[in-house]
Amino acid sequence: MTNRPPSDAAIGGGIPSGWLDPLRGDPLPWLLEESAPAVRHLALRQLLDRPADDPEVLGAGAAAMATDPIAAILAAQDPAGWWAKPGSGYLPKYTSTVWQVVFLDQLGADGTDPRIQAACAYLLDHAQTTSGGFGAVASGEARPAPSTAIHCLNGNLLRALIGFGRLDDERVRRSIDWQAAAIIGEGEIRFYRSSMPGPGFRCGANEGLPCAWGATKAVLALARIPAERRAPHVQRALEAGVAFLLSRDPAKADYPMGWGNAKPNGSWFKLGFPSGYVADHLARVGVAGG
Fold this sequence. Notes:
disordered N terminus, single chain, 41% helix, mainly alpha, 2 strands, 1% strand, two-stranded antiparallel sheet, 2 domains
């Protein structure tokens, strides 16, 4: 049914045993309710590690594709592959092409569906910069310039494209190389003051300081590459990302803050799903602590 890796909840390979022990109750009956097939499908795959050809997984996946929110998202898609308006697809938030692909992936949509493959192809044709990274532009009409590529967007789209079966696409491989180079400073990549002034997770939106939201998205993307297929520079970038995320107490999330901010953004402590460019405490712990 699905063209997806079994579980990318943590770099270590899925949910650790005994994960229910510290909880106040068992959430599985709620997560497995048939009234929310997309949630049920994800719970079967990522929490119970059921194989893709398991009859319950197949049934939940098919029901998820025919039910909102996945069905509503796909119904709003233009036959050419875009949402809201043609172009690079970053705006308007959060109804445009970029966000629909990101959300469809997080909701566990079937990557073999022709509509999703059309969306992937459209993004690769319109949202990828010549440097390999995916860029965010306000106008959205022309292909983004290399200076617009940012960690969070590239990580989100890279993760989705890998999940939708595009790992062997040469353009996706270029996005992987861009992501790794942008983290460790290796390779032919130019840094721009407007977005990424230097290696690491530096971002213009954070006054040139390393951005933990961007790091979370980048690590989630690189972690989705099967370990045996990670090139040495990709593995180094992944390890650097984990080290950065573990460099702060997750209960405080006091990562570098630009523009005079003295306390972490409140979104760290507000759990939400699906996730756009913001990362919350749960996502950070899942990425770095697995």
